[in-house]
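Data deposition worksheet. Section B asks for the primary sequence of the deposited chain exactly as it was used as input, without tags or linkers unless they were present during the calculation. Section C holds the resulting structure in token form. Section D is free text for depositor observations; keep each observation to a single sentence. Incomplete worksheets are returned to the depositor.
Section A, Depositor: J.P.
Section B:
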Amino acid sequence: MGFAAGYSTAYALDPASTTRSPAAAASPVDAFRNGTRLFYEGDKKAAIEQLRRAAESGHPIAQWKLGRIYQMGDGVPANDVKAFEYYNQVANSHADDAPGSPEAAFVASAFVALGSYYLNGIKDTAVKPNVDKARDIFTYAASYFGDPDAQYNLGRLYLESANERDPKQAARWLRLAAKKGHSAAQALLGQLLFVGDDDVPRRSVQGLMWLTIARQTAPQGRGDEWIREAQEQAFSVASEPERRQAVTLAQEWIAKSGSP
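Section C:
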């Protein structure tokens, strides 16, 4: 039995969003393709209508795309309620999809978005902050789909949770995401290893290595300044032999991984 059997929501936040339109008789695949094309051509109003037709017919990537559009306010006013509902449609219908399926990355991303909504709640709605539910959702996406964003969020939860703090578990999940090239997970793992914590022995060279990798691979201009600052702070207090060894290991890892 997969996660879908136990995953559902009682939140009918926007019933109109699940009502089929008579115009939805067109192929959902064609509607999705038309919507994607129109979106990148800049006709976002028409694109959203096409994507909505595909989503109403159960097209999971169209549902995910609409969730993303309403979450980010891309061409429409931001609306977390609508975003939540579209992500929830994906999660409810596709939780047991094979991890290697074409839709798997989008399904996993929908779970990560839902986990984040449960972590913080949606103001003035029935979606209240629920750390336990967020952890369950992140755990499913991290373990079943192997999603690095979910693994990173789960690692953060195990580090930051007041009642369920578990640095050893945090290190495990962060390492999985770090090895997949997740720069924030690399940096957080690096900080954890450089300093050490309960059940996580201090490994200064490995920590500085991951921080150095994260600094070199992190996207620029996307709120990742903390990665540079964390790496510089660790580098400033490391010994010269630790610096040399960490930089060498970081360069070797980057060369093998093919980035940047």
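Section D:
The two ends are 40 Å apart (CA to CA).
The mean pLDDT is 89.
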